[in-house]
Amino acid sequence: MKYDVVVVGSGIAGPIVARNVAKAGYSVLLIDKKPAIGTPKQCAEGISIKVFDKYDIPYDKRYINREIYGAKLYSPSGHELELRYKEASGVILERKVFDKMLAYYAAKAGADVLARTEAKDVIRKDGKVAGIKAKHEDEPVEIYADIIVAADGVESMIARKAGINTYAPPHEFDSSYEYEMLIEGYDPDLIHLWFGNEVAPRGYVWVFPKDEDRANVGIGIASDHPETAKYYLDKWLKENNIPAKKLLEINVGVVPVGGFVKELAKDNVLVVGDAARQVNPMHGGGMAEAMEAGTIASKWIVRALEEENISLLQNYTKEWWETDGKRLEKVLKVRKVTEKLTDEDLDLFIQLLSGADAEKIASGNYGEVIKALLKHPKVVLSPRRMNLLRQLL
Asked: Which residues belong to any copy of the Digeranylgeranylglycerophospholipid reductase catalytic domain (predicted)?
């Protein structure tokens, strides 16, 4: 088989690249090792409502469980910070359907799509990557392409085989554990987040409602912590008298929260999405980041094909690092500071911050918020808190 572009992995970034490049008239193959694209999910399934227009994705009720109007944050001692909008600010997806539909949109744009096709190695000719070796329904197949896109998740075998350094230390990953379960008593118009060093070390517990009485209930903690994510999630459920007896689905995963890949393009191979660690380090969400990276990558792939100049792919690395990469590095600074906060600190900051402030901090647009906090008496009187916050400026 021979294509202009082969995309390995049909999560979020992969189908965006495949669709955009196919729309430009080039031959594209999108492959995924799973027999059913979208399963199993490894995601809390929440995303901003803005992405649908921004990335030209239909607002399709088939993969939208419900609209969300904000968030509520809970401090270790029970202080609450609520951010509520009059109009929907986000949605809870059904990722099993959403991912498959993204692949469908790529196919409709002209890309070929093959499920149950696992990339095994790269093909090299004259010292350069010329394609990939794969298995399609257990039969070996060789796929040749001018450009190869590694969108194959956290471990990204294709990127490593191509010589791209994707190493990150264990501390730059979170372990997550999630139940989709029946649960009541939480406002289903909001997502709910609990913080605390005894609740979720370096992370948080979440309740993302999918129905009035059904939600994704999960946790993310530092992957190098001695206790497991499941231990802390079960502990939280027990302490809040929530019986874990109506479990519809259990998902386990590893989430990159740092360690961004520096070299996003090497010769004719690009890496995008989780494979490139393009994830928000503060909350671990990566869908919007994958869409953005996929959009930038596909733009430069099309340019490189149009001008028959593979070196133009290097502009993907340059543009991403000057835009979303710069923003995510600022968010990474926040994550590193929050790791040093005591429960008393978390209580104080959740009391001092407004919902809008919390949103700015999570997005990386926090300069004015930090300057205001540095003037508060309870911060001024603590050299340690002053020093931590100054690290963000």
From this structure: 174-255
